[in-house]
Design brief:
single chain, alpha/beta, Rossmann fold, Gyrase A, domain 2, five-stranded antiparallel β-sheet, Peptidase_M55, metal-binding, zinc
Length: 274
């Protein structure tokens, strides 16, 4: 059996705000250790449950957060930020299941540090389905016929994926009080929960169906201001929907839609100082 683990940071145990997830802040190095320990709890449980391979993709910010020397030695790691499929780089049909750890809710929703890729994005639609990172990454896995079987994060992230994928196993390691405050488990208890729920997810993986994307999806991204939409619309094949800050792109498949989202998000970031 072969599993893919995408590890974000905002949904890691005990982290309440940006001072714990930004590389320029004092709390960041402490957070990297907790993040790596939680990845190891999931990896170890996967191997105990029969996995032969576990591929880990660092999926937060510059995507170089996990402490490679402390990561489970039997897992492989993808690290670094320039990746065509970003948070789900190297997912393909050879995997038996995908797992998400440290995940958060989408932009505009309750949840610890909720957002969708960057703070310039207000919301994302694939056809008429409103999604964030959880939904988009699940669609990419589903394109390859691979189910997302497990998610760990705050309670809001867990509810978000449960609404998308029936039967998915979740582990809420903290409860959102506000976007920057949490009620959290102790890291030791969180690791035990992650191991337990990983084993449960692998045991029931055959009953969890992939989130299959539309064959030729229409991507719509609503930005927080018009300048961001203008920058995003520089990408060929896009258009700004009149009277809105929403940019539309008709993709040939979900992989093209995902890459288009990454490009538009980067272009929109040009207005970060305005």
């Amino acid at each position: 059996m072969k599993y893919f683990l995408s590890v974000d940071m905002e949904g890691i145990t005990g982290l309440p705000d940006y001072t714990f997830v930004s590389q320029s802040e004092n709390n960041y190095e402490h957070s990297r250790k907790i993040m790596t320990d939680e990845a190891n709890a999931i990896i170890g449980a996967a191997f105990k449950s029969g996995a032969k391979e576990v591929l880990v993709n660092d999926s937060h910010s510059k995507m170089n957060n996990l402490l490679v020397e402390e990561l489970h030695e039997d897992a492989d790691l993808i690290t670094g930020d320039l990746k065509p499929l970003s948070m789900v780089q190297n997912v393909d049909k050879t995997f038996d299941g995908v797992m998400f750890a440290g995940y958060h809710a989408r932009a505009g929703q309750p949840g610890v540090m909720s957002h969708s890729m960057t703070f310039s994005i207000r919301t994302i639609f694939i056809d008429d389905v409103e999604i964030g990172e959880i939904g988009f990454n699940s669609y990419v896995a589903g394109y390859f016929g691979v189910p997302v079987i497990f998610l760990a994060g705050d309670d809001c992230a867990c509810r978000e994926i449960e609404a998308l994928i029936p039967g998915v196993v979740t582990a809420a390691v903290k409860e959102s009080i506000s976007r920057s405050a949490v009620k959290t488990l102790h890291p030791k208890k969180a690791r035990a929960l992650l191991a337990e729920k990983t084993a449960e997810a692998i045991a029931k993986k055959d009953s969890i169906k992939p989130l299959v994307p539309p064959a030729t999806p229409t991507l719509r991204i609503e930005f927080t201001n018009y300048g961001q939409a203008e920058w995003a619309a520089l990408m060929p094949g896009t258009r700004i929907i009149e009277g809105t800050t929403m940019v539309e792109f008709k993709a040939k498949d979900i992989l093209e839609a995902y890459r288009a989202m990454l490009v538009m998000a980067e272009l929109a970031y040009q207005t970060r100082y305005c």
